[in-house]
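ARCHIVE CARD
SHELF: 3
SLOT: left
DATA:
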Amino acid sequence: MEHHASVTSLLIVIIIAFLTPILLHRFKLNFIPVVVAEIIMGLFIGKSGFDLVHDDMWLETLSTLGFLFLMFLSGLEIDFSAFKVKKQKGKKASVQPSEPNAFMISSIIFVGIFIASLGLSYLFVLTGFIDNVFLMTLIISTISLGVVVPTLKEAHLMKTNIGQIILLVAVIADLVTMILLAVFVSIYDMEGGNTWLLLLLFAAGVVLYFVGNRFKSRKFVSALSTGTTQIGTRAVFTLLIVLVAISETVGAENILGAFLAGVLVSLLAPDQELIHKLDSFGYGFLIPIFFVMIGVGLDIWSLLSDPKLLLLIPLLLIALLLSKLVPVYILRKWYDTKTVIASGFLLTSTLSLVIAAATIGERMEVITPEMSGTLILVAVISCVLTPIVFKKLFPQTASKDRKLKVALIGANQMTLSVTRGLSSLYEPVLYHTKQEKAENKVSSSLFDIIEVEDYSPETLEQQDIYSADIIVISTGNENTNALIARAAREQGPGRVIARIENPELESSLKQQDIEVFSVLMSTTTLLRALIESPGILNILTNQESSLHEIKMLNDQFDGMTLRRFPFTGDVIFVRILRGNDSIVPHGDTELRLNDRLIVTGSNEYVEELKMELELVIWKYSR
């Protein structure tokens, strides 16, 4: 009977996890993060509702695995290239004093948030709400990266300075609070290990990183990454379990090992297909079980019947808001009041790390189960309210009409012509070595060329070229092009395109995720197309209806057929490139995540379609 009951409870939880996103879509409740909705649905089937689900071995195991995988994906979300970009931009501070150094100001803001959280935590201790200042400080200072990232992407602010500041504050908070949570456990848990043993965990992480970095580009790894082998996925799960085991061995919480595994995978820069597989497995199966079970375990009625806990809910929400708004107000020196207040509200959102802290605190008997439930309830409320307030307050003009920056290195007949054609949809900037005065007079009258001393990677870094969205390298020397391309790929997050005529060098650069073009190949291909299909030339040269490539990154349209695609406008789908396949689109063709769509149409409609499809909407927010 117990076995039957456990399967029944699991069945109910799985059905609820399946129905939740469908109900959100059906009733157009897209402003509610799916994980929050799953917790709410868990309330209906758990202690606060019909009491249909009870803890058992099945659910406890799967819920624990879901929690570990959530922490793993939390670490995987951290994009360390953001730190590199900010360091480079700091070199332009003297040129553009109107905007702050993002990395430096983000660090200052987080320090302010932590100090404010510490002061507010003492107030909660003095008023008798909680006994542990350390735990309360972590709870107030944490920020949900999983809410911040999709909100910034939806508002098209990821590439702006203010967007990068908000993102970096959340990233720093994610890293620091997770590490401090591990320190908290090692100090207060009588069954835990010594704090110094945590160094063994981080040392193991460093060793595994170097091992992974050495083997990831080996040919046998690529050969074993397809079919039934899927060596990349196996390696990730092995890394996860190894670090979780080491974490428990040294007396730390297992979630720290899972989080560290995610950070290491992020540092190893896996391909997007692998990340998509991991997201699909985690957010499609394990993580929903965990969040539904969070709701199942909450007893709302006991929380609401306790006046002290009822009073704590608004007070804690105010503390979360004050701890972010006060430090963020330093940005008022560069931005308007609405932007600053909106940023403070977005940074108030918190969820998974609060759940982690509350769960650990309850296990260690530092807080009561009722207090743990109250903390989780406050985190859920913050995740629902803060993104809505941010969207209402943040000035829309700040993110509208932003053009992608294209840095073209090397002034020649080709790049000069391309620069003129790109100006309507992009922000092209041309860089060239210092020219003779006679030559300079001719070019400067038509083009804005920034002169550099030479084409060395160091000189280009001083010009902040590597922070451009797209970098095109077309100097007269292909070895110089390759050198710059490799430096740009290492230091910048944008696309890198290099002019290379040597097939061997071309193959080497392509393996490093560098796009390559050849003048000879392009000319040959165009001439052949002109001979075989003369009409193609009109499509390629017509500025109003030329071909465009758009990458499909919006989860909302994943699996949708072109027949059902809601976008209307003067755009025709010409080809869909999926991996190595080239698909001729028709009404029943399904769009897939990371598809590259070749479309033609007027610039206005193409740009609108690009905004729709390249908008990343995360199905789950932490």
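SLOT: right
DATA:
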Amino acid sequence: MTALLRTLMAALTAALVTLVVPAPAAVAAACQTDPATPKRQLRAMWISSVANIDWPSRTGLTAAAQQAEFRAWLDLAVAKRMNAVVVQIRPTADAFWPSSYEPWSQWLTGTQGGSPGYDPLAFMVSEAHARNLEFHAWFNPYRIANHDDPAKLVSTHPARKNPSWRFAYGGKLYYNPGIPAVRAFIEDAIMDAVSKYDVDGVHLDDYFYPYPVSGESIPDSATYAQYGGSFGNVADWRRENVNLLIRELDQRIHAAKPHVSFGISPFGIWRNSGTDPLGSRTSGLQSYDAIYADSRTWVKQGWVDYISPQIYWHLGFSTAAYEVLTAWWSDVVKGTGVQLVIGQAAYRAGASGQDAAWQDPAELSDHLHDNRQHPEIVGDVYFSAKDVKADRIGAITRLVNAHYTRPALLPARGTAAAPAAPVITAATQGSGGVQLTWTGSGTAYAVYRVAGTPSAADPCFFADARNLVGTTRAKTFTDTTASGTNTYFVTALTRTHQESAPSAGRTAGSPGGAFSVILDNAAAGFTASGNWGTSAYSNQLYGADYRFADPVAASDPAWYAATIPSAGSYRVEVWYPANAGYNSATPFIVAASGGNQTVSVDQRSGGGAWRVLGTYTLNAGTYNVVGVSRWTSATGYVIADAVRITKV
């Protein structure tokens, strides 16, 4: 009851409202949600490196130029309110990191084996995480080269040192999937990146056995004779070779790092219903038969965390209609725990030579409207980054305006426990927006904004993304779009996106948009020496705890720094717990424009509420504005808890 009364007092006397609600996930089902603002949705784009499709834009760029280009791709993803990128780091049996297994990629410098002068993968992961974008490392498993001349490979290339591991087909070189040593090597090469770097996901594309070339046969009869004895035909053996790679990678990835997501983006058609009653109502190439990719089994066996079929066809397409395949894949994943993310053909939208449907700016947006009919679909990934940027016929802009008006949390994976709710320590209304700081134990955080000062926290505030203003891996956030009075909540997220209950609400602003900031002793701007202890003894405290120190005849103040938006008059208030044993003459220092002003406060009484020190002229800028000094002849602890500064 005491805590409740303290909360109500704060709500009535301060620009602060404390509202406690259940965990968002627990109440979402009871709320009326807006399908246009889903709370959770994976939104990503593929960033292709092979043939310099997206990044780097060409070989031979300096390290600084490469880095600038990559940052621009990430900034594009953020601008489109995406929350992940899928980056190709092993395009042709090579590496975008210093690998002990394979040479540096030629797509970096133009010369296979040539160092770019920095570690691109470390750089890319760091930059993505700085923007709270998930980084999914994209590997092509079997492709060695887009030519069939082994002599063009660097002399140290494993495919040159082990000629029996490779074959040529269709003018390209491939690793032979039927050789166990090859499979182990590919897995080792992938795991080298997984073990050394803080990637969020491992991603394979649709290239397994080569796509068929007319008049050619895959030259693996000798390998089949050696290793395929238990199989009645070569097709089943080839599918099992791919299955083994998928199953073993799944096991190895999660054994090394359980939080890393494993996903595959297969060709959009598994089999046609005319061939197999389990197949889709389509009549296109069957990946099960043509490239030996049994993608349906991967899902049913739970060997992947997500499946991202490339449904690169338009709505109503006679051979393979988009809406037919989204329904089929939704049925495949249902009940499996595997997440369904649709691969979208951004490269077709508005491109010359494409069907008339792709000249309609609404086509891609209509795909996402279709997705809403299938709760199994948890997001989309777009091929590729340059097409997202090109935004031909405004197709991407239309999609973003219809479906990505709010940020979105990533879908949760696994069963990890949610973290504890964060504690907001400051909410600063300034000329640049509202700056929040908090404490918490999450990997990332979500910030929600609710207009006004509601008397109670409606759990439906958190059921969709209407009130979600951003996510971050930091413990600070500036809401640059705020106006008027708003109440903020912060939740903490695990590495696999389980969400905590919301923090207590904090209100910032006023109907007139005046500046007001509350600084707790846990705020980032609070500083104190090691002579100041921490306590939560008194039930009159503000926030989670407060600071205390013995009086001493020396200068050792605890300071509260704030960003004062403009010079002018400001009311300064303090909050402290009172106790008969505390100091009767605690000196509070205000750094006024004409010099420091000191006010003595009797902290034996009047606690648990805001107490006005006075109104002072303050300079603009970020500096130590209010201090609590230990320099007093009175006995008893001096207390530093919270400060409120309001422009008047």
